[in-house]
Design a protein that fits this description.
Among the domains are: about 60-165, Methane Monooxygenase Hydroxylase, Chain G, domain 1; about 195-290, no CATH class. Helix content is about 60%, strand content about 10%. The chain is built from ten helices and seven strands. The strands form two sheets. Strands 3-2-1-6-7 form a five-stranded mixed sheet, with helices on both faces. A two-stranded antiparallel sheet has the order 4-5. Helix 1 (about 10-35) crosses helix 9, helix 2 runs parallel beside helix 4 and helix 3 packs antiparallel against helix 4 (about 115-140). The two termini are about 45 Å apart.
């Protein structure tokens, strides 16, 4: 039987760590309370805390979700059919049939979705093309990867147009909300403002909100290649761990306090932006494998 590696809660060493975690959380709350204006973007909303006041505003509208969701229909088809091709199994048949039913239901409400004429026509094309492709695959009982790829590529003009419109929706909505708040800030508040963006892992590089706030606040901006870095002076932080308003603000407090702690211990403000074991791990891996890491 393997010996457990975790410390027993009754172990005095474990209790010592409990004290650290308690005091760290208390310091985190104190740091957050003492920060200047702080803004969080999570999901569809922006949250601003400044001078004891909390404000909430939209980051995007329902059109954003409508446009992205219709793009998911061809992706759902690709997901069901996968990479194998060949004869359909029963599970794939059932899923395609259900997807077609839901596409039909979406088509019925499309006229009342509030999209403009061009957007509505585009969504109808995507829905009809997807429905016809599903019907053809079900009738044939088989599909080749070449035919699937041909269908998917044929939808790309409409998909790209939807992506562009969804991006415009979020940028314009975010800019309107943020701009109204910024108009009420003085120069000192603006200089203190920090932003945390909650991001899904796959969406981190080039994250739209990260690009917008990096540009708006004067951080380094790398366009569609924008991603989180270790610069402690950076005013915009992106993290997949920021899943709601509270965890995002807690993350900001952690970032600020860890910068101070890293400077106090290591004399390097960004040191805790890397795994605390990183340097030692690199040295030991060099010893184990006889090769140094190559810088890109």
């Amino acid at each position: 039987m393997a010996t457990p590696s975790a410390l027993d809660p009754s172990d005095p060493i474990a209790q010592l760590n409990e004290a650290f975690l308690e005091y760290y959380a208390a310091r985190q709350r104190a740091v957050l309370a003492g920060l200047g204006p702080s803004l969080v973007h999570v999901g569809d909303s922006l949250y601003l805390r400044s001078g004891g006041r909390r404000r909430v505003g939209p980051a995007r509208t329902r059109h954003y979700h409508q446009l992205k969701t219709i793009c998911h229909l061809p992706l759902a088809i690709q997901t069901i059919l996968g990479d194998s091709g060949g004869e359909l199994d029963d599970e794939s048949r059932e899923r395609l049939t259900e997807l077609a039913r839901r596409a039909d239901e979406a088509s019925k409400v499309l006229p009342d979705a509030g999209l403009d004429a061009d957007q509505t026509t585009r969504q109808r094309r995507l829905l009809v093309a997807s429905r016809e492709f599903i019907a053809a695959v079900l009738a044939a009982g088989t599909v080749t990867q070449a035919r699937l790829r041909e269908f998917l590529r044929a939808q790309m003009d409409d998909i790209r147009a939807n992506i562009a419109d969804a991006a415009a929706d979020q940028l314009q909505t975010t800019h309107a909300t943020f701009g109204a708040w910024v108009a009420e800030m003085d120069a000192e508040q603006w200089s203190q403002l920090r932003v945390v963006i909650g991001s899904g892992h796959m969406a981190r590089t080039g994250n739209l909100a990260a690009q917008y706030f990096s540009r708006a606040l004067g951080d380094r901006w790398e366009g569609r290649f924008e991603r989180e870095d270790e610069d402690p002076g950076r005013r915009v932080i992106t993290s997949e761990d920021a899943t709601d308003e509270e965890t995002a603000f807690a993350l900001l407090a952690t970032h600020v306090f860890d910068t101070r702690a890293a400077n106090a211990f290591f004399g390097e403000e960004s040191r805790l932006g890397r795994d605390v074991l990183a340097d030692a791990a690199e040295q030991q891996l060099v010893a184990m494998f006889g090769e140094r890491p190559k810088k890109r």
